[in-house]
């Protein structure tokens, strides 16, 4: 399943995050790719808002992982950007305890920890900045578990 959605501003991206969060389950992993400033953290803020995270969600670039427990479902926000040059054998920082844990995990820059991820099982989101400075979200999954999310997105965005 694959769907493309364009957001014209930050607020529309937050809204998209809220819709995604409304159809996500415990143990799921969302991978978020896209250039610097594409809107990965903005989307995460929308997801966190809907899950009920009370703290401000910031880009965790200087922390690899931030955990939020104030929400109904814990949110684990991982930014793998700084793991780019870390050798594989040193990269095992216990991410697997978070991934497939008791909450929802969101991973920015998943390509830097791809050896720990099963891309057949995640909700994958790629964000592109288009010529009008809009954000084009390509949301895809190989797993049928996400079909209710895709149906919801089709309905809301009239696709
Ligand atoms: N449609 C849009 N959706 C999201 N953000 C937008 C949009 N249009 C403009 N912006 C701006 O783009 C920036 C997105 O920043 P954000 O931190 O979400 O990006 P990021 O992908 O997490 O970057 P990084 O790789 O540095 O962590 C914000 O300053 C936001 O105001
Ligand atoms: Mg970010």
Question: What does this molecule look like?
Answer:
By secondary structure, the protein is of the alpha/beta class. The chain has one domain (2-85, 97-156): 3-Layer(aba) Sandwich (Rossmann fold), CATH 3.40.50.300. Helices cover 25% and strands 25% of the residues. It has a seven-stranded mixed sheet, covered by helices on one side. The longest helix is centred in the first third of the chain and has 13 residues, at 10-22. The relative contact order is 0.24. It binds adenosine-5'-triphosphate and magnesium ion. Magnesium ion (MG) is lined by residues 40-41, 59, 108. Adenosine-5'-triphosphate binds next to helix 1 and helix 2.
How would you concisely characterize the structure shown here?
The chain is about 25% helix and about 25% strand. It is α/β, with parallel strands linked by helices and about 160 residues long. The model has no long low-confidence stretch (mean pLDDT about 95).
């Amino acid at each position: 399943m694959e769907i493309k959605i364009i957001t014209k501003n930050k607020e529309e991206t937050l809204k998209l995050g809220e819709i995604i969060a409304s159809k996500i389950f415990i143990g799921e992993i969302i991978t978020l790719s896209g250039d610097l400033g594409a809107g990965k953290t903005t989307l995460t803020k929308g997801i966190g808002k809907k899950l009920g995270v009370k703290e401000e969600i910031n880009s965790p670039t200087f922390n690899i992982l931030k955990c939020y427990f104030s929400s109904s479902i814990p949110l684990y926000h991982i930014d793998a950007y700084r793991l780019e040059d870390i050798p594989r054998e040193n990269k095992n920082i216990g991410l697997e305890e978070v991934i497939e844990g008791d909450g929802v995990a969101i991973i920015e820059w998943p390509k830097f920890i791809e050896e720990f991820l099963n891309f057949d099982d995640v909700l994958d989101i790629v964000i592109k900045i288009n010529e009008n400075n809009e954000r084009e979200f390509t949301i895809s999954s190989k797993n049928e578990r996400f079909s209710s999310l895709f149906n919801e997105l089709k309905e809301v965005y009239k696709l």
